[in-house]
Design a protein that fits this description.
- The protein is α/β, with parallel strands linked by helices.
- Helix content is 36%, strand content 18%.
- The protein contains seven helices and ten strands.
- Strands 3-2-1-4-8-9-10 form a seven-stranded mixed β-sheet, sandwiched between helices.
- A hairpin with a 2-residue loop joins strand 5 and strand 6.
- The two termini are 21 Å apart.
Length: 257
């Protein structure tokens, strides 16, 4: 994308955001959000609440940012266990929720998945969701509107090429060839999700959030002696980057340069 075209896209995006959020409303009041816990087993096969803890608390954190409850759907592999009543985590159901929400909330899209991963994709119950399929799901539902995709899973950096677009930000828990950490039976959250939740109240906008998460994960892995480092990946499209200051969190730390 040329610099002039990127500037034009940014201006049009700013107009879109202005129209989507009435004066005094949160910039995320008209955003659609889908949050998925894709597994319930730890790395050694035992039960873990780490993914569902992250799902629950990410939804709460999005509410604090101004996402409206009716524009948020959450999914779990074992939904009957939880009082917040998530839906059953199935790829078709997730796509259906993305489609429905995108029609009623047109300001932007956020998709958060936390689960196990493999080089071929991310686990959603008994299925493996490949990067190309997720890319098509996002394209067909969110289109050209501002979109943030967060994937907390081993090898999740492999999703960046399939999802990258000028209007998108992609944040993953690991490089395409690295594991991430913290999905044991005793873990409250995976390391990445823990850092995401810690950074949310302090960040000013999504770019700063991503950078804080990267730093937090690196520090946690070094402290715990986990090797090789997962190296979370952050991609921000050229058309979205200048719009991010128009989507403030209201945090306390200065925005990233």
């Amino acid at each position: 994308m040329t610099r002039g075209l990127a500037r034009l896209v940014a201006i049009l995006g700013a107009l879109w955001l202005t129209q989507a959020a009435p004066a005094g409303a949160s910039p995320f009041a008209d955003w659609a959000a889908v949050v998925v816990a894709g597994d319930w087993q730890s790395h050694d096969g035992g039960p873990t609440e780490a993914f569902d803890n992250a799902r629950r608390d990410v939804v709460q954190a999005l509410g604090a940012l101004g996402f409206r409850r009716e524009n948020v759907r959450q999914f779990s592999v074992r939904p009957d266990r939880y009082r917040d009543r998530p839906q059953k985590a199935e790829v078709e159901a997730i796509y259906g929720a993305m489609s429905d929400l995108a029609r009623q909330a047109t300001g932007g899209c956020l998709l958060y998945l936390t689960s196990h991963g493999a080089p071929e994709g991310v686990v959603v119950d008994q299925d493996l969701l490949p990067p190309g399929v997720l890319g098509q799901m996002v394209e067909h539902t969110c289109g050209q509107r501002p979109t943030v995709v967060v994937i907390s899973a081993c090898f999740s950096g492999g999703f960046v090429p399939a999802l990258a677009a000028p209007n998108r930000m992609i944040l993953t828990a690991a490089r395409r060839d690295r594991s991430s950490f913290g999905c044991g039976e005793a873990d409250k959250y995976p390391y990445f999700d823990d850092c995401f939740l810690q950074a949310m109240p302090r960040a000013r906008e999504f770019w700063g959030l991503g950078r804080q998460v990267q730093s937090c994960v690196a520090a946690r892995e070094q402290k715990e002696g986990m090797k090789p480092p997962s190296e979370p990946q952050l991609y921000v499209g050229g058309a979205l980057r200048p719009l991010l200051p128009l989507l403030p969190f209201g945090g306390s730390e200065p925005a990233a340069n």
